[in-house]
Amino acid sequence: MRMLHTSDWHLGRSFHRVNLLDAQRAFLDHLVRTARDRSVDAVLVAGDVYDRAVPPLAAVELFDEALHRLAALGVPTVMISGNHDSARRLGVGAGLIERAGIHLRTDPAACGTPVVLADGHGDVALYGLPYLEPALVKDALGAPAAGHAAVLSAAMDKVRADLAARPAGTRSVVLAHAFVTGGAASDSERDITVGGVAAVPPEIFDGVDYAALGHLHGCQTINERVRYSGSPLAYSFSEAAHRKTMWLVDLDGDGTVTAERVDCPVPRPLARLRGRLEEILEDPALDRHEDSWAEVTLTDPVRPQDPMARLARRFPHVLSLVFEPDGAPEDALASYAQRLRGRSDRQITEDFVAHVRGGHGPDERERAVLTEALDAVRLDRAGREEAGR
């Protein structure tokens, strides 16, 4: 069986205020062509279809158009909700849409109920595990604790129990939206660490032939059976070095997995430039970046006059300007921002406690209180997004 694994479309998202709807439409055109031209048997979308719980109308229309085109091809599509999606909104009409071969899996309670497809070697059971917010799904899944590893393990127990009851030789695929140990993050993923340690071990997916993951925006192989497709477009300059692709996965009759990367269209390359303004404006080696979306970090000891306007004359698509003067005294605010970069909410709060106590961090009881407070804030934000406020 041949599957096309993708994720993290983030329909409706912009890039430094640049509207990406046309680029997202070009990607979906490419996805449909690939499904047709490469004889794909199933499309797998591992979450974060939209960028927010209440997406703009143009994004919803683009999604609707893509589903109609996939249904017209007769290519079954299995899709889960991610942490950016509203599971309830994305799942509206799932029962009706399923008749057209579009299988939306947004209900955690249905983790053990697969979409069953068949090829010349027999059945393939595809299980959709939507993003599992630990505090919300712990009881429904019967997890022993409200942590990411605990709830995902409970969901996989349901998968393995269902698979064990199926005929011998049934192959299996899991779609999941999670942060798996060994994966490399970027600046554009929303933090999911509240509720305990976010990363879950890849061994959680033992017992299935392939795990199609979403959440991390870089295409990466955790092991031969556990892979991230990454996002089809770059959503931050931290992704400048990413090669944006989908996985074309072949699952043989004995469960052997082979995978090929299929490149996605690039609307405009990204460039991260650093140096003094005059050097950047005059360096001929930078000619290749003149048509790129650019982030420029200026190191001039004194802030130049009208730097953005001057840069834009050579680099008309410059989007971000940062100042880090050479030899300047340390800027406490800038230094603090740099220290926070890449750290979770939980790490930040624990570091703050240690700072005000002269290096003594919170004990286990205090960590539990901090986690409870952060969970409450997170769930309140999720509720507000669901309500469309």
UniProtKB/TrEMBL annotation:
Q: Which InterPro entries match?
A: Calcineurin-like_PHP, DNA_Repair-Maintenance_Comp, Metallo-depent_PP-like, Mre11_N, SbcD, SbcD_C
One GO biological process this protein is involved in is: DNA recombination
- The Nuclease SbcCD subunit D C-terminal domain extends over 267-355
Checking Gene3D superfamilies in the record gives: 3.60.21.10
Recorded GO MF terms: 3'-5' exonuclease activity; endonuclease activity
Calcineurin-like phosphoesterase domain residues are 1-218
Enumerate the UniProt keywords alphabetically.
DNA recombination, DNA replication, Endonuclease, Exonuclease, Hydrolase, Nuclease
> Tell me, how does this one assemble?
Heterodimer of SbcC and SbcD.
Sum up the protein's function in the record's words: SbcCD cleaves DNA hairpin structures. These structures can inhibit DNA replication and are intermediates in certain DNA recombination reactions. The complex acts as a 3'->5' double strand exonuclease that can open hairpins. It also has a 5' single-strand endonuclease activity.
Spell out the family assignment given in the record's similarity comment: Belongs to the SbcD family.
Under which name does UniProt file this protein? Nuclease SbcCD subunit D
Q: Which organism is it from?
A: Streptomyces caatingaensis
